[in-house]
Specification:
It is built from six helices and no strands. The chain is mostly helical and 157 residues long. It folds into two domains: 57 residues, no CATH class; 96 residues, no CATH class.
Length: 157
């Protein structure tokens, strides 16, 4: 059954991209895959389909929290946390830079502002730590979908 859902998702994306190139084929493909998974699950039961569902997500606000820096064991905490935090920050920034550069070449843009990207990503991760957020960075999937759909920001017109 997972193969069937994957086939529906992939074929929907390819068909929409071919016959309706201005439509958001990524979104429609994912929606078709989700609907086909639900239909198969309802028709045959979850024991038969063996489709792993992620569950239901809510849009409740994230709890306000403050990063925990234990005063009694700060040295031990910092020895473990700082290398991991630095690694995630560097990898996220490298990924965002590669995405920005790749999409700039595809869209024929000459000025990529890496300093602006680093500042925005750093502020996002700093403020996100107070709202129980995961580390953030750029996403090639969303950016490529926006580029393929010829999406425009208010500044780009």
């Amino acid at each position: 059954m997972p193969f069937a859902v994957g086939t529906v998702t992939l074929s929907t994306g390819l068909l929409v991209r071919r016959w309706r190139p201005r439509w958001p084929h990524y979104i429609l493909a994912v929606a078709a895959g989700m609907i086909s998974a639900q239909v198969l699950d309802l028709a045959f039961g979850s024991a038969t389909t063996q489709l792993d569902m992620a569950g239901r997500m809510t849009l409740d606000s994230l709890p306000l929290s403050f990063p925990d820096f234990p005063p009694d064991g700060f040295t031990e905490f910092s020895t473990a946390a700082y290398p991991a935090a630095l690694s995630m920050a560097v990898l996220g920034l490298m990924q965002s830079a590669v995405i920005a550069r790749s999409l700039a070449v595809k869209s024929r843009q000459s000025d990529v502002k890496f300093n602006q990207e680093a500042l925005g990503q750093g502020l996002s991760n700093l403020l996100g730590s107070f709202f129980s957020c995961f580390t953030s960075c750029g996403s090639f999937n969303r950016s490529a979908a926006n580029l393929a759909a010829d999406a425009r920001t208010p500044r780009r017109g």
